[in-house]
């Protein structure tokens, strides 16, 4: 059974997403009687969430005063990847006031990794980015129990299973924290400030070290019964395909992902079928997915073919998911989105050919707009939502 | 953004699903202050939805009077299959008071088919099943715009595209009507009174003439952007497989469905590989999926293998959908569910082996409890919901 969104949450979100406005505008936006709005605003001002923001531009008559979210509100947004930490501190409008990005190995475990997150956040405070944090949002590369704030049996995160991530961050920073899957926060970011803005039903497909899918249905992230919905990297696409790290054969991400592409690129470089990759291998000793992208831009036939083969695999899985969920949009993000329009063209071609015409009649398949920032952007949205939720 | 369920809808549903109860019990169930409840009940009595139902059993002290849904409420529930019409008239508790089932070809078009539906309903009135209908719910074997109450580009329903089914039924019976996809109504039926009772996230897989999937997410049917979510029959499972009626090759339902199974059964009967099927072919001139089921029960190796092959195909697709949606339950229904435990065992085996362990740790894969009645049962639920919605 559905529950209604509380008034204070709607009010704070409007100010976050649309900025300062007059009480009259706010009443119109929320379709709320003025006395109730004024009482609620007064309460939120006294709690420190909302502040006066000067006078509106004159339109004749008495000029009205604007209200806005308190300029001192600060949220921390953290995106943990398999091999990276991205941290931002953002203001009430979710604009970054401090940002750090560095390589890190998630396999170092939760203590080392979260200690580094905390160090970066303390550095931000020393640098003047905030006095206190009002919430922390964090995404991790594995399944999460959203309710409990802990990773659950994450395959590539040894030592993280049921580690109390939310509790540790809450204790360290004295504010609420929220933990989600890395692909979900990317989808949330893209819906808040990217290409999927205000789209209620879409799939965000992350193609990076692994492959995963964020699912927006009826305007909400769908996380599944155990928090692992969207785990499409292990859908079998070739029963005679290579062994996957999960123990099965022919999984999508065993055939196409950052790791799989690097492996095939090295093979092509060594066998000499790709001059562009052979050249890069000779120069660097190893080639990666990025080299394939660069080779394709130069017109190297093998590089283009590798990307097309991958696009065909991803497209095949997405065609099934389009028939299944009938979404309004598909967004492609993650590191391999850098493979750009060749990848996109192949995915589109397969999806449009193989899904029900009714479902693809008006289905954009597009690249992420926020790119590598999608994750922290979504973590910031989650953090602000959880902070606003406390203002009840 | 979510909307709250109106009070009158919650109240009427509780009386529908739990039967007569005292005002005090009702107040407890709905967690509602007594004055508001009494006012709402009075309103619903005056509208003819609710009636007094005598005295509760004595528990000492003054005996309280019970309220129940009006005994004269009647809903029509219609399930149109590719080759069948099922019609029921049900009372306020959704118990059938009249039922008709007959073969019919959906390709005869909407006018002929709906005229027959109307004839059956008028017959029910003449037979005393109702004085007037309060709503009609109908399921059709194709995609539906739930909002508009019309089929949309249904592949196996020539002449039905955008035909105003809801409007015609509303006009004919002078009450609201609601149109949905046949698999969705089966899922709704199974959740209301079957094996998926009170399960919020599950997949209902219908394996019959074709294959489709009803999707319950967070307690609601998910219909997708264009009303065609769940169309899993055309997911490709073998790029070298047979041509499908949709024009693509190797679709799930081209490999396993009532039609595909009958085709393979006839081949096996003719080639002599299956004694059980050869015998039936000699006796009847043709064999169907039902003969395969009977042959399997007798231990015919070919029949068992045909069912296992089909289960493997379905299981492969479901494994991907389990990874994608992480549901709490999978229900198998439709005509081929009669293939029973051999089919179920094979589907389970593939799903448990191929999906993420976290998603299958506690995932029942079970047969429909309502069987052929699932569709009308769900249509009745939809009809009552739409009637209750009018009581605002």
UniProtKB/TrEMBL annotation, chains A, B:
Keyword Kinase applies: yes
Keyword check for Ligase: no
SUPFAM superfamilies, alphabetized: Actin-like ATPase domain, Winged helix' DNA-binding domain
Annotated TM spans: none
Entry keywords, A to Z: Kinase, Transferase
Single GO MF descriptor: kinase activity
Signal peptide (from-to): none
Family the UniProt entry places it in: Belongs to the ROK (NagC/XylR) family.
The protein, known as: Glucokinase-like ROK family protein
